[in-house]
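Sample pair:
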Amino acid sequence: MHLDNAPASPQSGHLLAHVFGHRKALSASILSQVVSSGTNFTLALVLVRVLSEADYGSFCLGIAVCYLYAGVGNSMLLLQMVVHTPDKPHEERLPYAVRILVAVVLFAAGTVVLTALGSYLVSGLWPGANAQMTFAIAVATASGCYLVKDYFVREAFVARVEPRALAITCSVALSLAALLALAWLCDISMTPERALIVFAASQVAGATTGFTLARLPLQSFRSSAMLADLSGCWRGGLWLTSVSVTGWAKSEAYVYLTFIVLGAADTGRANAARLLISPFLLISPAINAITTPRFADMRTRDPRGMVRGGTAITAALLGLALLYSTILLMTSESLVPAILGPQYRNMRGPLAAWCVTLFAILAREGATPVFVAMKRFRALASVNAATAAVSVVSVLGLMRVWGVTGAILGGAVGDLTQAALLWGSLHHGADSVPRPAHHVSLEQALPDGGSPTHR
């Protein structure tokens, strides 16, 4: 039979129908991530041009701590909500979301209050530390506000109302633009602390939008039920928190080790170069936000398909990354000073290192949502702990040879090691899973459990 006359594969038709059926969710998710990453990129771009290299490095350190805090909150509460919600009866899912919201708000508020009290005590004992304590309070405020906003984004994806997540990120973008414009009109000089407060205020705007649109049944809250929920979150969250902390220690090793060894100015240069690959990194979180809850639905029904899907998505992203990196490096001589400012020159080394790191990040991030959906938190914790040590040693070793460029490449070594371990474990586990004895129809295979045009 000639290929032109061959009938289309039923599985290919099912895949196309599945993608077409979720086109609105995919579009909203990608747009949400585009807006979110574009907002962060714009803020960083403004700050890299108005702050000194040292001040920009300090701001980047504060944002790194903010992401560490958000990672812990996500691991203990938000991702637990994602993976446990499918196990709840439909009538219990919204009350469960309310209880997690209360826990998130208490966690964030408690963090800010304890940080403020601790800073007040330290300032009383060591008056010379006032500036550092002000910075600590700004970081804590930004961290708490970011986590609360992130709750509403996660809840929108869990509820399969992806346009709500887009509305939240748009409100963050608009409020941030308004605040930056106000600061410019009032001729307010920007500092790392003020930049963090502006960031925090925009997150509050996003959280307010999410709360308004979610219309959660707050009257359903029961403290006794919340304690039971937190107990369930603790069992998986403890391992996932260790994953988050060690993952942060690995992925942000170049930030804090460069800050300690080389100083704030070199930290600013490393993060300035990272801005140029940031536009591409917006794709992976957008896809993961959709795939994680759907992979969780496929956990027992089609584990082989879950691994195949993660592999195909990662391979496609790596191909796009190769094209993006090639164009970026070919145009770097004119592009870097035009975007980052004239003070950032001789950046080809750090930029090339970030292009290598981009491949490592995409390979690692492709496997992580599959592990989360499978609730393999302990395995993730073990891999993260091992590769965090690899990353720290690599950053310190390569930094001695190549400075800032070596610090960035050291982080890539840790990411590549983690990616190799995760994918090796996934494919080995998938090979040991027996194939289903019966055919699975499209209606059964779809995460929504119905028609491709269900949503």
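The mean pLDDT is 84.
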